[in-house]
Amino acid sequence: MSAANTAKKSVLVAVGVIENAQGEIFICQRNSNQHQANKWEFPGGKVETGETVAQALARELAEEVGITVLACEPFMQIEHDYGDKHVTLAIRKVTAFNGEPSGLEGQPSRWVAIRELEQYDFPEANGPIVEKLTAAPGA
C-alpha cells in the first residue's frame, strides 16, 4: 500500500434501506455542505468506535429520520473510493421499525417506489444498492 493510500480517510458507514408496507423505499437528500452535496441517499451514518453496524444504524436512523429500528438484516456491502476518501457501506435492510421517518435535520425526504429510484441522483457508491433493489422480483 502506498503512502497516499494510508493517508486517505477510510470511513465505515451503516446504511439503512427502509421499506414500507407498500414496497416503497425511504430516501433523503444530502445537505449542500456535505460530501456528495444535494444527492439523494439511503439514510445512515458513520459507525463510531465500539459500535456494531446494527447499533450505529439504529442510532443514526433515530437521529436523522426519527424511527426506532426493531429489526434489520444484512443486505450488501460496498467498498468505494471517492478519491478524497474510501468508504465501506454496510447496508442493512430495515425489516421492522416504529415511527414514521422524516428528515429531522431539515433535509428533504420521501418514500419512493422501487421502480422510480433510478430517477434520483445518488452518490456513485449507492449505485449497486439501487441496482439490487430494482433487479429484485416484484420491483
Automatic annotation (TrEMBL):
Presence of the UniProt keyword Lipoprotein in the record: no
Entry-linked SUPFAM superfamilies: Nudix
Class of enzymatic activity (EC top level): hydrolase
Residue ranges of coiled coil: none
Binding site for 8-oxo-dGTP: R30, H35, E41, F42, P43, G44, N126
PANTHER family referenced in this protein's UniProt entry, alphabetically: 8-OXO-DGTP DIPHOSPHATASE (PTHR47707), NUDIX HYDROLASE FAMILY PROTEIN (PTHR47707:SF1)
Similarity-based family: Belongs to the Nudix hydrolase family.
Identification of the protein by name: 8-oxo-dGTP diphosphatase
Taxonomic lineage from the root: Bacteria, Pseudomonadati, Pseudomonadota, Gammaproteobacteria, Aeromonadales
